Amino acid sequence: RMACRIISKIAQPGILSVRRMATAAKEVHFTREGKVGLITLDRPKALNAINLNMVHQIRDHLLSWHDDTSVGVVCVEGTGPKSFCAGGDVVSITASAEDDSAALTFFHDEFQMNYLIGTYPKPYVSLIHGITMGGGVGLSLHGKYRVATERTLYAMPETAIGYFPDVGGSYFLSRLEQPYGMFLGLTGYRIKGADLKHLGIATHYTEMEKLPALKSAIMASTEDTIEEVLASHESPIPGPFTLGPQVDLIKHCFSDPSVLEIFSRLEDD
Predict the structure, then answer these.
(1) Using CA atoms, how far apart are residues 83 and 151, in angstroms rounded to an integer?
(2) Are 17 and 54 spatial neighbours (Cβ–Cβ below 8 Å)?
């Protein structure tokens, strides 16, 4: 309940995407081609922010494909050049600060969807081109494969509004090489595509101009060939890890399990 009220008071565009919840049914599209089920987020004006309607549609299709032997691979993408998914559509939460039922329903159902993705028995491929934050991270990071481009911009910025890295953030951040997970979770630092591959957040890196060819190959793939398809369309990672010069400082400041000690080390440095 407290988290709902915090968000309702201080949520702002660019941190959690606050957009009016659309009633149109075509906010997300589902396409079948061969053995591939394609999920396309289609709210480009809202940077493909995900709302409860979309959560329910995605969950229901994933459940219907779960035991369908004619589906071997699931792929998810965002419409437009700017964003995969900029986060959750929390206007329903901000509009119901005194009645938490809508907010609790959104978080409950979104987190169920995240768990379903994380335990999905079939290859789940996310084309995380563009902004990928908050709810968009939950929609992608729990799947088996994440393909970044030079325009990918990743962050879990919830701590900036007094919240915690949700959508399973504490699960996957704690499994990164430490202390990078603690650093990203506490600061909301924005990471670009090549660095996502360096950190292991992205499993593959492909230049943007090669993305259409990769998507075509994915749509012709099967559960037996998808790994080879992704590997054959990878691009060389451009340059070294950009946080490299700050590695020693990050390790010194963020390696302690106590947040108070982390703040103390940051103040000292």
Answers:
(1) 9
(2) no
How many other CB atoms are there within 10 angstroms of residue 98's CB atom? 8
Q: Is the peptide bond before 179 cis (omega within 30 degrees of 0)?
A: yes
- The DSSP secondary-structure symbol of 258 reads -
Taking the C-alpha atoms of residue 8 and residue 97, their distance in angstroms, rounded to an integer, is 6
Q: Are 146 and 204 in contact (CB under 8 A)?
A: yes
Q: How do beta strands 145-148 and 83-85 pair?
A: unpaired
- Please give the structure tokens belonging to residue 3: 């988290």
CA angle centred on 207, ends 204 and 213, rounded to 5°: 90
Q: What is the dihedral of CA 58, 122, 17, 201, to 10 degrees?
A: 180
Mean pLDDT of 211-220: 98
Q: Which helix (H) or strand (E) holds 116?
A: helix 101-118
Look at residue 96 in the predicted model and tell me its pLDDT.
Answer: 60
β-pairing verdict for 28-33 and 36-41:
antiparallel
Per-residue pLDDT tens over the stretch 33-48: 999 999 999 999 999 9
Catalytic residue numbers? Answer: 88, 135, 158, 166
Strand residues in the chain grouped as ranges (E): 28-33, 36-41, 73-78, 83-85, 124-128, 131-133, 145-148, 153-155, 191-192, 204-205
Q: What pLDDT, in 10s, does the model give residues 61-87?
A: 999 999 999 999 999 999 999 999 999
DSSP state letter for 236 = -
